[in-house]
Amino acid sequence: MKAILTVIGKDNVGIIAGVSSKLAELDVNILDVTQTIMNGYFTMMMILDLSGATDSFGEIKKTLTDKGTELGVQIKIQREEIFTSMHSL
Amino acid sequence: METSQILETIRMIEEEKLDIRTITMGISLLDCIDGDGKKAREKIYNKITRQAEHLVKTGEAIENEFGIPIIHKRISVTPIALVAGASQDENYASFAQTLDKAAKTTGVNFVGGFSALVQKGYSVGDRRLIQSIPEALATTELVCSSVNVGSTRSGINMDAVKQMGQIVKQTAERTADQQGLGCAKLVIFANAVEDNPFMAGAFHGVGEEDCVINVGVSGPGVVKRALEKVKGQPFDVVAETIKKIAFKITRMGQLVGHEASTRLGVPFGIVDLSLAPTPAVGDSVAHILEEMGLESVGTHGTTAALALLNDAVKKGGVMACSHVGGLSGAFIPVSEDAGMIHAVERGALNLEKLEAMTAVCSVGLDMIAIPGDTPAETISAMIADEAAIGVINNKTTAVRVIPAPGKAVGETVEFGGLLGHAPIMNVNRKSSADFIARGGRIPAPIHSFKN
């Protein structure tokens, strides 16, 4: 299963490191990353492959949300289809 | 996948309140018919709780994984008049109580289908069901009721129109302690559709499969925001913008419906691509019309604006999903739409203009509070007017009015939640009693010589 991770918040040291090390712990593979500063906000998007992960989607979501709180950013994870179905035929 | 597209989707959900309004499971109860009412109710309870056992859980899982809110999970059933008709019971309120119990067991928000189809005439079951409506709605919480009193093919059953005025009044009186809330769960239709996932008018038509998943999408806020970007531009641009955004909204409905149907092992019926407002800020159909350049919804030009909106929503949505159905278009309930409420409060929107708007919106006079002392005949006459608009123009129309007990123009009723609050609207005080007393049937319209 592929998912899109979005991280939005105030820029700080160690956001990418924090997020990606947590993903590694969860056995989630990162397929693509884009990151920019948009209107002064740190904005990162990752395409993830969850097929190797043992935790359920709900558990992964909870772990990442908690990590986001710790890093002071908002982390969302949603299945890829919600974006592809809206923007492509 | 482009970053801007990902952010657009997230913004639509978070800021513009794009949501899946409902996943509605339609369940046929035709195989629950029994000569013994008690046995029939047992079968109904068992079938609903079996079929919909995982509905709420599945809806929540989809919501969680895709990150799109699914506001309601609902059930619609075969019109109970057809199911209960075989039993010897005189009062069908107990059937409504069974539906209520089944709804609570499965955890859904509403169950629709305490319904009768009497567009041409009454069967014994229809008569008993309609008489049971006030008690049924007063003794249940989650049951919704609807009665179809007219169709383009068969005309308008004026006996039913007359009776429904009285039933609306009785329902209000039976639920007077909740300001007539029972009436918010009662819709009187012309040209009712069989696959509507929206309440209070949902029922599972006899032409449908045994069990089916229908989805209703919403998102007036998304349309409003898109129109903000084309301020002052010609209507060609407005229509194109609405079509594009309706396409995107409907794609969400298709995805969620497909996913729910696969997980539940139930066929996927239709997506109803309706713009259904809620009282929340930024979730108003009225504000879309105002964004087109009207100072207030209700002023001259409102009908044209609504016609464009309703049509563009359908056009944008049809290509986005495999089957479109239900009511598809723009709803214009008063109490559920912050912009409509505001327009009534500042005297810009009246019942007559709302009636004109129903000729081009997706349904009809919806969630309108009227004075508690409005005569039953006047309510019947409103139903007749709406039915006439629907029957002649080949569209679904409906009436859901609340004659709020003890309340007069200038006061407000508060229903809470998605039902919102409603200022009491002025009703024409001239009598329609002799007109309604006639009864009988208004013949079906001719389908040629259209003008």
From TrEMBL, chain A:
Native species of this protein?
A: Sporolactobacillus kofuensis
Query: Which Gene3D superfamilies does the entry link to?
Result: 3.30.70.260
**Pfam families linked to this entry:** ACT_6
SUPFAM superfamilies given in the database record: ACT-like
* Name used for this protein in its record: UPF0237 protein ACFP7A_10715
ACT domain mapped to chain residues: 4-78
List, alphabetically, the PANTHER family matched.
UPF0237 PROTEIN MJ1558
Family to which the UniProt record says this protein belongs: Belongs to the UPF0237 family.
From TrEMBL, chain B:
What InterPro entries does the entry give?
UPF0210 (IPR007841)
Q: Which domain of life is it from?
A: Bacteria
Classification via HAMAP family: UPF0210
Q: How does it assemble?
A: Homodimer.
Q: Can you tell me which family this protein belongs to?
A: Belongs to the UPF0210 family.
- What name is this protein filed under? UPF0210 protein ACFP7A_10720
Organism this protein belongs to:
Sporolactobacillus kofuensis
